[in-house]
């Protein structure tokens, strides 16, 4: 017997004519996270298999937990023979040190030419276990051991336990998006959920020194690093928003500060997205959560861009968002007490039903086009490869 990791695809199997693209992308993503591991990867439309030459399957499993497109993965035992007695003897060898009080056998035949039905295989192997292990009893509803047998055309695979994967689509199969990443709880979760649907993300963050601190910037970098684990690295665009924000604060009626500020952020984000060949913007807005996230506000703010804006959290409440943030380990980073530029100039009474005509009128008070060009020209890029900042440069 030879140990292998067996990967089950789940949702990817519904792709039919496009499944080749999905599986090839999944393999590339696994190759990426397993760089430095001495492995071979084989796959077909039913399963993917990873064979390690160093027997370091625990470490490999730890990497696979962050890969989208995997329904579940399993440490399995590969037999080159599909003779039932040989299968039975190998199963006895594998379970000899296990506590077997109750058990069941589950058989799957992807090789439909195999002459014995799945039910008959399960009965036969179950009989071998009963004859050789005195304590064993069959319990098909709640066994303490499940023996899984997969009979394929080229081999038979035996396994007992599986690890649930992240599901979703392989990163990159849906194209590229730009995440508007703040230091809050919501935007990292929105980014995670977009990655889950196969979107390869870059991120944009607006800083406003000296009004925002270096700690706030570092917090966003930590969030980007966390997202990079799922995204195969990430490129973080950092925009100096100080001049634009100060001009808005000086010249715009204060109830419209957030609305105009968000419209400027959208304009800049759309240009960065276009330069990066990103097809969508992604943000963490949730309907009604704050003044800028009422339906009317979102409509007025959204008006400045033609690019689709995806809001994965639009219909989530805060507790649901927090739950996911804790699961993906961004929550403790997000609650670090460093303010971003969206919170430092919040007026006491921001408008919740802004008028587009007023926004257009107020924006005539600003030379915002030249300010936007300057901000984009001088913006900083940080390239993050999983948990390490590889390098940074200034455009």
Describe the protein's architecture and organization.
This protein is α/β, with parallel strands linked by helices and 395 residues long. The chain folds into two domains: 2-166, VC0802-like (2-Layer Sandwich); 175-394, HUPs (Rossmann fold). Helices cover 37% and strands 24% of the residues. It is built from 13 helices and 16 strands. It has helices at 19-33, 57-64, 84-95, 118-132, 186-196, 214-231, 242-251, 257-275, 295-302, 318-327, 331-334, 356-363, 368-377, and strands at 2-8, 39-43, 48-52, 70-79, 102-109, 137-138, 145-151, 156-159, 163-167, 175-180, 199-207, 234-240, 280-282, 309-310, 380-385, 388-394. Strands 1, 2, 3, 4, 5, 6, 7, 8 and 9 form a nine-stranded mixed sheet that branches. The chain has a seven-stranded mixed sheet with strand order 14-13-10-11-12-15-16, sandwiched between helices. α3 crosses α4 and α8 (257-275) crosses α9. The longest helix is centred in the C-terminal third of the chain and has 19 residues, at 257-275. The radius of gyration is 27 Å and the shape is elongated. The N and C termini lie far apart (55 Å). Mean pLDDT is 92; it is low at 389-395.
């Amino acid at each position: 017997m030879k140990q292998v990791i067996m990967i089950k695809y789940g949702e990817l199997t519904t792709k039919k004519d496009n499944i080749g693209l999905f599986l090839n992308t999944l393999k590339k993503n696994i190759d990426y996270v397993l760089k430095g591991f001495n492995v071979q990867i084989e796959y077909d439309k039913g399963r993917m298999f990873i064979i390690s030459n160093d027997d370091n399957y625990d470490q490999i499993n730890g990497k696979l937990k962050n890969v989208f497109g995997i329904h579940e993965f399993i440490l399995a035992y590969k037999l080159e023979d599909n003779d039932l007695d040989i299968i039975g003897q190998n199963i006895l060898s594998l379970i000899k040190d296990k506590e077997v009080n109750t058990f069941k056998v589950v058989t799957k035949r992807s090789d439909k030419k195999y002459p014995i039905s799945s039910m008959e295989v399960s009965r036969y192997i179950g009989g071998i276990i009963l004859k050789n292990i005195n304590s064993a009893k069959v319990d098909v509803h709640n066994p303490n051991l499940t023996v899984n047998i997969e009979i394929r055309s080229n081999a038979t695979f035996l396994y007992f336990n599986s690890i649930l994967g992240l599901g979703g689509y392989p990163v990159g199969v849906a194209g590229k998006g730009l995440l508007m990443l703040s230091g809050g709880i919501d935007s990292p979760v929105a980014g995670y959920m977009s990655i889950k649907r196969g979107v390869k993300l870059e991120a944009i963050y607006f800083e406003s020194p000296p009004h925002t601190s270096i700690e706030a910037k570092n917090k966003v970098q930590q969030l980007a690093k966390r997202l990079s684990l799922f995204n195969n690295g990430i490129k973080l665009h950092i925009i100096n928003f100080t001049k634009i924000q100060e001009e808005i604060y000086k010249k715009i009626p204060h109830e419209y500060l957030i609305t105009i500020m968000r419209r400027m952020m959208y304009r800049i984000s759309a240009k960065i997205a276009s330069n990066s060949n990103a097809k969508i913007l992604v943000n963490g807005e949730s309907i009604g959560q704050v003044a800028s996230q009422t339906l009317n506000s979102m409509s007025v703010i959204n008006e400045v861009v033609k690019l689709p804006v995806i809001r994965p959290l639009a219909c989530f409440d805060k507790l649901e968002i927090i739950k996911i943030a804790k699961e993906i380990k961004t929550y403790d980073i997000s609650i670090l007490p460093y303010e971003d530029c969206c919170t430092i100039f919040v007026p006491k009474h921001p408008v919740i039903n802004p008028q587009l005509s007023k926004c257009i009128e107020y924006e005539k008070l600003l030379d915002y086009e030249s300010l936007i060009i300057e901000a984009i020209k001088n913006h900083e890029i940080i390239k993050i490869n999983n948990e390490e900042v590889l390098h940074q440069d200034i455009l």
